[in-house]
Write a structure and sequence with these properties.
Helices cover 35% and strands 17% of the residues. The protein has a five-stranded parallel beta sheet, sandwiched between helices. Helix 1 links the parallel strand 1 and strand 2. The longest helix has 13 residues. It is globular and about 30 Å long.
Length: 132
């Protein structure tokens, strides 16, 4: 089930795609706290709908998901006009996966500092963090 946290026009938007709701909630909360707008999806098909609608600045993509997995999502996203250029960070416990074309890779488990540095580098800075 997708969720969307309210945003302003100056916030960088992150799409978080993971089938585990606990991971989605924890990462979304951490990114939101740092000032990012976060939209989420539980599988690849939902992520494609969210990409088309919300045009995120960066996608954090799990690979192992029921329904449309991360590999299938990426194959479709790469050829679809309007969303093909969105940078994708594969976030997976599988180790580096050579069979998927991604902008960056973060192994699970990852540190919050690694995650934030990657999102900043690819998706741009957040607006004012919530704790500022």
């Amino acid at each position: 089930m997708e969720s969307k946290i309210p945003y302003s026009l100056d916030m960088a938007r992150v799409l978080l795609v993971d089938d585990e709701s606990d991971i989605r909630e924890a990462v979304a909360e951490a990114l939101s706290y740092e000032g990012y707008e976060v939209v989420t999806a539980g599988d690849g098909a939902e992520a494609l709908r969210v990409c088309r609608r919300d045009h995120p600045d960066v996608i954090l993509l799990d690979l192992m998901m029921p329904g449309m997995n991360g590999w299938d999502f990426r194959r479709t996203q790469r050829i679809e006009e309007g969303i093909s250029m969105i940078p994708v960070v594969v976030v997976s416990a599988l180790g580096r996966v050579g069979t998927i074309d991604a902008t960056a890779f973060l192994p699970k488990p990852f540190s919050l500092d690694e995650l934030l540095a990657t999102v900043r580098r690819l998706g741009g800075p957040a607006s004012q963090p919530a704790h500022a």
